[in-house]
Amino acid sequence: MAIDIQWLKRVIERRRKEAGETGTRLHPPAMVNEVLDFLRVRELKRGVIVDMTIGTGGHALAILQANPKVEVIGIDRDVSSLEVAAERLADYADRVTLIYGDMRDAKRLLQQVGVERVDGCLIDPGPSLWQLDSKRGFSFLDDAPLDMRMDQSSQVTAQTLLQTLSAQELERLFVQVGERRSDARRIAQAIVKERNESGGIPTAKALAELVARVKGVRGGRLHPATKVFLALRMAVNEEIDSLRGGIEEGAKVLKRGGRLVVLTYQSLEDKTVKETFARLARLQDENETRPLLRILTKDPIRPSFQERQQNPRARSCKLRAAERVR
Fold first, then answer.
1. Quick one: 124 and 6 in the same domain?
2. What is the mean pLDDT of residues 44-67?
3. pTM listed for this prediction
4. What is the CATH number of the domain that holds 262?
5. β-strands 70-76, 96-100: how paired?
6. 47 near 95, Cβ under 8 Å?
């Protein structure tokens, strides 16, 4: 579904005036110069870039500012994030199309707005600072229900998983994102015990406190519940499947010579990008006689030292890029 950006801006302004809101916390996008360079935004005489996870519009804004001849199509499954992006990009409304949907459906969504092929695709997964502030249970400090859905139309929440998965299934989930197996087992058992004794864990803050008690961790840069929250969020939003599907869809809609850039922030995401790129860059089966992509980054590109100092959220970021060859 394509969204009228000017209409959204008027709606947002009215809501804020009525509610007396003071503003939205937005984080600086990661590796902007590298993204612009790999997508060759400044070199395009005219073109279309698809931000397949536009979020609050940070990278899209940089693309629009870098080249007045480039249009941006932004896709996101969080309609509230699209509202924020609409406000942020309102000055470029004549070159922006926003679409509510999942990047795994990118080809179909683009066809709905009359676009078959594009010059570049960008994927930047994971939650934004704005979403962390949205009281959906993403933050350890949220005294709010464990929701964690990016798409509010989805039926499964983090609370659903905590109430229905067995201790063994929860343990497997936590180990998948790098939690130590012994800690994962104890956390999973504590969660099951809590739901059996008191009916469940009511809030994100309560879950964070439970994990901290189980692990007995004090100090350190990361909160002891970081990997547990990551595992639940990724499961609720099917993030690995979505990332893999998004890359495949992005490759399909690129023109020959078009570029696909993917940013990741943790090892499971990066592994998924590496493996999916590799599969699309080699012979696949008897029906595919030639590779679809050429990998441009043998090893992932990391943020500069200066960016890591100025933007702590970018410290773990990795960039991989590929080009369509047929």
1. yes
2. 97
3. 0.89
4. 3.40.50.150
5. parallel
6. no
